[in-house]
Amino acid sequence: MHADRYLNRLSELLAQVDRSAFDRGIQLVRDAWAENRQIITLGNGGSAMTALHFMTDWTKMVFLAHGKPFRGRSLVDNVGLITAYSNDISYDEVFSQQLMGVAAKDDLVIAISGSGNSENVVRAIETAKNLGCQTLGLCGFEGGRLKEKADNIIWVRSNDMQLVEDVHSIFGHIVMQALCRTETGDQ
């Protein structure tokens, strides 16, 4: 009963997903990888785990498939750095401050926020754009400020955080499979 209800809602949501936005997102990651640019992910809570999951899958599997390095990093995987910036500056700046130290022009920054309104995620997108990075925002609900600020978006139009997170995870798995089945530089 509960499984049916949840899976039916997920199926209905997947039927509404903007597949062209997924394809644009896949192309952004593919191009950054093919051009040896850095791909940087970030998010809070469950979105932090999604950001880290992306890097785990993409960095390992794309390299194993092609032998070409995948220059990926997540800004959520160094607890010491996160707590140092949070304590010494502000949690609102935890990702922006990290980006200033590691991002370069034309890198791809992927910001994930279920609500689209996490202040530190929105500020990270602003910082990334100021640094000349490309930006991709993954959001849900009404899209929030992330939807307005990111250059490219994958917007899951649902007010259910778990369903939003499911679709964001599915995007990551599609990226991994698309890149693993692609020859370096092929479309």
Automatic annotation (TrEMBL):
In its UniProt record, a GO molecular function of this protein is:
isomerase activity
Question: What GO terms describe the biological role, i.e. biological process, of this protein?
Answer: carbohydrate derivative metabolic process
Q: Could you tell me which Pfam families the record lists for this protein?
A: SIS_2
Q: Recite the UniProt keywords alphabetically.
A: Isomerase
Superkingdom of the organism of origin: Bacteria
Give every SIS domain span.
Answer: 25-187
Give the PANTHER family listed for this entry: SEDOHEPTULOSE 7-PHOSPHATE ISOMERASE / DNAA INITIATOR-ASSOCIATING FACTOR FOR REPLICATION INITIATION, SUGAR ISOMERASE (SIS)
Specify the protein name: Phosphoheptose isomerase
Q: Which organism is it from?
A: Methylobacterium gnaphalii
- Organism phylogeny: Bacteria, Pseudomonadati, Pseudomonadota, Alphaproteobacteria, Hyphomicrobiales
